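thread: overnight batch results

M.L. [08:02]
morning all. the overnight job finished for the chain we discussed friday. pasting input first so we're all looking at the same thing
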Amino acid sequence: MALKKISEGAEADIYELELLGIKAVMKYRRPKPYLVKEIEEYLRDTRTRTEARILSKVSSLISAPKPLLVTRYAIIMQKLEGIQASKNPSLGKPGAEASGKALAALHSSGIIHGDFTTANILVGRSGISVIDFGLSYYSSSAEDMAFDILLFKRSVSKEDFRAFEEAYGNGFAKSCEVLKKLSEIETRGRYQNRSLETA
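M.L. [08:03]
and the structure it wrote out:
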């Protein structure tokens, strides 16, 4: 099984491979030698299993990588075709709407992505796919959901966000509560910035 490294993140390396004739990628969580060995192994193991469980659920809701094989520190998953949305000037209305529908589906199932930006959205021939659930977790908190939206908002144009917001609102029953919380978070941020400027 030949491995080709295609990406290197803060916690994990991503490799390209074939598994039983299927194009796949492997996410391997690297050891962190600066941590106590027992703690480091526990964190890698726990985060890998959590991500794999969430991916199994997510891949039945939206276009996202489906886990094929899980080991203690690695997940081999289906390789999805597409280009990172962050590499394009704009998602465009169809891509923004599809992103809103995807996040609405996640939040409706109580799943927080944790890093919902255009860097983790692939644009392909058949639409968008959401990748990298390394920071994902389950939560029913409106504030946690609002932070997902805030990260997305900061990575797109105003026009793209308007299309996203409308699709998200139509797709999630509690969207009004989450969007209200988003406004509160942004207001807190502006207040904190003003306080720092006048300190």
